[in-house]
Amino acid sequence: MANLSDVETSLGSPRSYGDVGPHPASPELRSQGNRPALGLALATIRVIDYLVNKIGFLSIRYRLAVAAGNG
């Protein structure tokens, strides 16, 4: 069975674990933090766009029906 010092040498010292990856205040992580909000905003815009188009389509159909005397 390997002793603890052999395992630490093969894995690296515990102090090196925190050095992996960018610093929490780095610009890379700050820019990634806005992506979920951006996705939600885009989804909201798509829903609003769909509803506006649907309402516009229905109002055009209604105007055509009124013009044809069926409204």
Summarize, please:
The protein is an all-alpha fold and 71 residues long.
What do you see in this structure?
With 71 residues, the chain is an all-alpha fold. It has a domain at 36-71. 66% of the residues lie in helices and 0% in strands. The protein is built from three helices and no strands. It has helices spanning 4-11, 27-32, 35-67. It is rod-shaped. The termini are far apart. The model has no long low-confidence stretch (mean pLDDT 71).
Number of helices: 3
Distance between the termini: 87 Å
Percent strand equals: under 5%
Major beta sheet, specifics? none
**Relative helix content:** 55-70%
- From the alpha carbons, calculate the radius of gyration and give it in angstroms: 29 Å
* Helix/sheet category: mainly alpha
Order of helices and strands: HHH
What are the low-pLDDT stretches, counting only 5+ consecutive residues below 50? none
- β-strand number: 0
Question: Overall mean pLDDT score?
Answer: 71
Gross morphology is rod-shaped
